[in-house]
């Protein structure tokens, strides 16, 4: 996977890399169908690709919200996606004890934004030897993320990615400070812009997070313009009926057009 990190930072096509997939693994057929579609698009556009899917959702507004189909079942689906399409896979972990379990099935361990300061979790992820993607907390400055990088590197793992997903703005909105992308790149790691979670509208009175998916392309264009190494986009063939975070996901049918536009932005600025 270290060679893959080198590849995504220095891709021959000059393109950004992409982390994309459903918010949560809802079932095998759905995951394979989404992966097949995205792989066909990224192969065509020469975009390095990592399939994303959460095997379990721990951070939910309501206790009745969908959390997953079962840990082992979902992780085996992620493993199958990686094997069948020959792509790396990434999933969230939430507690230190999950690191080794998830690492047996995926290539990249993702630390959720609300947990990015959890030292034991970061060290446990680092000790698996997998790539560790740390999402910047909505409550942190970009500069503060150097400490997350240091914790992982000091644990013996230099395979780190940082992902921005906006900053808290009031109680129910997020904003993106694009100055943070080059600041985090100064730590010597690839930096990704999460174009979907940065458009969430959390803490709604309904208990279901809202979003503004119509602005995904806007967020992504700006990120590419300031030099983001990669993009994170959650996508689904039917966002309105997705079991998690449908309000801010990109419709799968719009992905190719979106990426093609972003490649043109990339070509204009490099």
TrEMBL record:
Q: Name one Pfam family in it.
A: DAHP_synth_1
InterPro entries from the entry? Answer: Aldolase_TIM (IPR013785), DAHP1/KDSA (IPR006218), KDO8P_synthase (IPR006269)
Pathway annotation: Carbohydrate biosynthesis; 3-deoxy-D-manno-octulosonate biosynthesis; 3-deoxy-D-manno-octulosonate from D-ribulose 5-phosphate: step 2/3; Bacterial outer membrane biogenesis; lipopolysaccharide biosynthesis
Q: What sequence ranges are listed for the domain DAHP synthetase I/KDSA?
A: 12-263
EC number assigned by the record: 2.5.1.55
* Segments forming a coiled coil: none
State the Gene Ontology terms under molecular function: 3-deoxy-8-phosphooctulonate synthase activity
According to its UniProt record, which reaction does this protein catalyse?
Answer: D-arabinose 5-phosphate + phosphoenolpyruvate + H2O = 3-deoxy-alpha-D-manno-2-octulosonate-8-phosphate + phosphate
Into which EC class is this enzyme placed?
Answer: transferase
Compartments where located? Cytoplasm
Q: Which SUPFAM superfamilies match?
A: Aldolase (SSF51569)
What are the UniProt keywords, alphabetically? Cytoplasm, Transferase
Where it mainly occurs, coarsely classed, is cytoplasm
- What family does this chain come from, according to its entry? Belongs to the KdsA family.
Q: State the protein's name.
A: 3-deoxy-8-phosphooctulonate synthase
> Which species expresses this protein natively?
Pedobacter punctiformis
């Amino acid at each position: 996977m270290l060679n893959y990190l080198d590849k995504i930072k220095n891709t021959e096509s000059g393109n950004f890399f992409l982390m994309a997939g459903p918010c949560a693994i809802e079932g095998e057929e759905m995951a394979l169908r989404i992966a097949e579609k995205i792989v066909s698009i990224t192969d065509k556009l020469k975009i390095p690709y990592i399939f994303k899917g959460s095997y379990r959702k721990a951070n939910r507004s309501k206790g009745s919200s969908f959390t997953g189909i079962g840990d082992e079942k979902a992780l085996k689906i992620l493993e199958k996606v990686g094997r069948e399409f020959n792509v790396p896979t990434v999933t969230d972990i939430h507690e230190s004890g999950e690191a080794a379990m998830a690492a047996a099935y995926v290539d990249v361990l993702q630390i959720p934004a609300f947990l990015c300061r959890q030292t034991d979790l970061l060290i446990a992820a680092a000790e698996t030897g997998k790539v560790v993607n740390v999402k910047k907390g909505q409550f942190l400055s970009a500069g503060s993320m150097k400490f997350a990088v240091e914790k992982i590197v000091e644990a013996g793992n230099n395979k780190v990615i940082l992902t921005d997903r906006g900053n808290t703005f009031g109680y129910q909105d997020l904003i993106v400070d694009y100055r943070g992308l080059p600041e985090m790149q100064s730590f010597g790691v690839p930096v990704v812009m999460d174009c979907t979670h940065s458009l969430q509208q959390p803490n709604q009175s309904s208990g279901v997070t809202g979003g503004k998916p119509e602005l995904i392309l806007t967020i992504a264009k700006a990120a590419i313009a300031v030099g983001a190494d990669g993009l994170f986009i959650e996508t689904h063939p039917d966002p309105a009926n997705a079991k998690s975070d449908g309000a801010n996901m990109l419709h799968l049918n719009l992905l190719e057009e979106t990426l093609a536009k972003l490649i043109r932005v990339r070509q204009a600025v490099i």
